[in-house]
Amino acid sequence: MRSYRFSRRAFLAGICGAVGLELLLRNLEAAAQGTPPPPRFLMTHWPVGTVKYHFRPTGSGTNFTFSRILKPFETAGLREDMIVIWGLNGNTGSGQGGGHEAGTPMATTGARCPGTRKNGGEEDDACAGGPSFDQIFLRHVPALQRPGIGYANAICDARVDSLETSTQCLSYGYTTRSIAAARPANTNITENVPLLPELSPTQLYMKLFSGFMPGGDTDANRERLLRGLRARKSVLDYSLSQLATIKTLAPASETPKLDAHAEAIRKVEQQVSEQISAGGDMGGAACAVPPAPDPSLTGKTGSRNDYGRPETSTADDTIHEQIGKLHASILIAAFQCDIIRVATFQWSPGTNHVSFKGQFPDNPNAIYMHHPLSHRILDRAHVWDSPPTSGELQSIVEFLSNVQTWYNQKTADILVQMKNAVDVFGGSLLDYTIVPYITEVAETTHSWSPKPALVFGGKKLGMRGGQYFDFDTRPRPHNDLWMTIAQAYLGTSNPLPEFADEVFIKEGVGPIPGCWEAPA
What we know:
There is one protein chain. The protein starts with a helix and ends in a 30-residue tail after the last helix. Strands 1, 4, 6, 11, 14, 15, 16 and 17 form an 8-stranded mixed sheet that branches. A 3-stranded antiparallel sheet has the order 5-8-9, covered by helices on one side. A two-stranded antiparallel sheet has the order 2-3. It is of the alpha/beta class. Helices cover 36% and strands 16% of the residues. The chain has helices at residues 4-14, 21-32, 52-55, 71-75, 99-109, 133-140, 201-209, 219-249, 255-277, 317-336, 370-374, 381-384, 391-420, 479-490, and strands spanning 40-45, 58-60, 63-65, 82-89, 116-117, 152-155, 158-160, 172-183, 188-194, 301-303, 342-346, 355-357, 367-369, 433-438, 451-457, 467-470, 476-477.
């Protein structure tokens, strides 16, 4: 009788070319041996800061009441999966770049911006002075690393004011280059290269799942694919028969593990059978790969200057939501299939021109662009201390609050999808994924302090959800957020020494106490 090891080797040899199937079996075996699901990291962003008196919860610690802007997360049942932080100082002492333009790379890299790029537009397009924390964690945490692509970045709308890169990119690599600077003038500066996000869900899908799809929809390719599918089904049938034989020989204690293997293979076999019945249509042979997106669904791009006319005739919110949820579904599937463990997701730039209908209180049919209308609020007190007395300004502040609530509702939907998603190890995806949700400015007048941030997930990695931390009177460095998260990946309450060679600002930086404890 063949041993399990021999059957496994024969099975793996037989599925050569069945992309992802070997990975699935290896992960199943690891799970059966008690290996926990791997950690994951998803950096997310919302634009244009907040309205302080509509954002801050009341209370503190575990005893707090959600604000109106944060209410969607409570309604979605995410209270115990989130940490609310108020009072981060995002000013790295750069002095270079606009509020949104410098605020974005400073928030994600924690480093000073060395200057602004000469891009043919405005002169405030800040450059990154270091790698972003998605890439820092990817380098320093072996458990986040995967062969192949390694990470993915997505954005849902990339329209900006004036050709700027800074506001439409969260991720920056370790590679540097010299570029012509707008500031300081007549110089070259060294920037960390932007790892630009995918705007099209189809392109993101192809980038991540091209190995799961046949190369071109021709009759010849489809016939070759069908032959491969039939051969693959034969291997799966053989493997199931071998597992059934092994089950009769193995100790009873091994039965649940063997059943888990068999059930996973049956699911794959069913997918293969369905693909054969469909004539070779690929939906993902080894995991829950989402359907290929409609190529016509993609975010908008380009430069605009709409400050004098923020009202428009076309609303973006419906397609904006569709694109966001398509991107998110693709990233979630890539996490489940263990193709990547690190990603970034950005709704829109801080200098966005996304238009929303039904969010302006005085006129539910009016359509306004988010960032251009925000520039009508010139007094910080109007979004910080109390509502303005002017009726028009009150309506604009309400619009801004409603738009952030809209973003939070759609983000909550995505997080619930993650919470309900189960990987091959049997773990909730959200429990093993830390999802920081950040913004580039504090409010409409472009200050960088005190800023809000939210941290979702990571419960099985030691993150302690269901808490609110308020540092309004003594803001903490924004890099404290990243060191708080780093504890979970490095398994230490003092992660800063692990990053001694990194260039992000470290002075006065440390984890926020109480957000993490080592898992049992």
